[in-house]
Amino acid sequence: MQSITHKTVFALCLTSMMGCSEKELACTEIGCMSGLTLSFSDASGTAASNVAGVVSVNSDTGTIDIEFDCSGDGGADYFCDGNSVTIFVEEGASFSYDVHTDSLSGTGTMDLSWETSTPNGEGCEPTCYNASMDVVLDAMVDDTVE
Q1: Other CB atoms within 10 Å distance of the CB of residue 139
Q2: Where are the domains of the chain?
Q3: Which CATH class is domain 30-139?
Q4: What is the tens place of the pLDDT at every residue in 81-118?
């Protein structure tokens, strides 16, 4: 009967581990959507609903203008939810807005910071890009003269 040496056991263990160091990539099929989400409120922090207007997203490839009206659910280029609107875009360095409700309005420009997400794991599609900003609206001033 032959005796098994420590060197033999080590060689067998090393051989069994070789070829198994690279794992196959297994991706799930979770989807995601890219977008810029704007949440609207008044100066006191109260949520502003039924916001409508224009958002212009500025990027290296040009400017995308999206008109929206959140008195309904949304449109092809945006989705409304309470006091927020999500504009379906994937890039942009900044955006400008000109928005209003029945009693509030706001205009301005803000820089964007995008977060990247890969819901199915690194190396798996899709990759989504999202940014969110809070927009404070001011009370409208009635300029009509009687």
Answers
A1: 10
A2: 30-139
A3: mainly beta
A4: 999 999 999 999 999 999 999 999 999 999 999 999 99
